[in-house]
Amino acid sequence: MTDEINKLEKKFLELIQYNVTVKSNLYAKYYFELRALFKDNEKEFPLTPLDKKDAEKLELSSNAYKQKLVDVDVK
User: Fold this and answer.
1) What is the pLDDT of residues 37-59, one digit of tens each?
2) In whole angstroms, how far apart are CA 68 and each of 30, 42, 59, 63, 75?
3) CA 24, 13, 64, 53: dihedral to nearest 10 degrees?
4) Which listed residue, 5, 23, 50, 75, has the most CB atoms within 10 A of its CB?
5) Rounded CA gap, 55 and 70, in Å?
6) 58, part of any domain
7) CB contact set of 14 (below 8 Å; sequence gap of 6+)
């Protein structure tokens, strides 16, 4: 079952050409909606918005993983 889901996810990413970016306004919208749902229990939703440094680190990590998947496909 897990292998099937992984294959489906991989195919989906290929079809959208690994374009999984999220615009900042959409990220903010859902972030604040989720925060509002958990406003009474900070422990259940301890996330903070990404700062520029963390966003850049996440993007580098994502690009490296994307390249790794592309390299596996080429083989």
Assistant:
1) 877 776 666 667 778 898 888 88
2) 29, 36, 14, 9, 11
3) 10
4) 50
5) 22
6) yes
7) 73
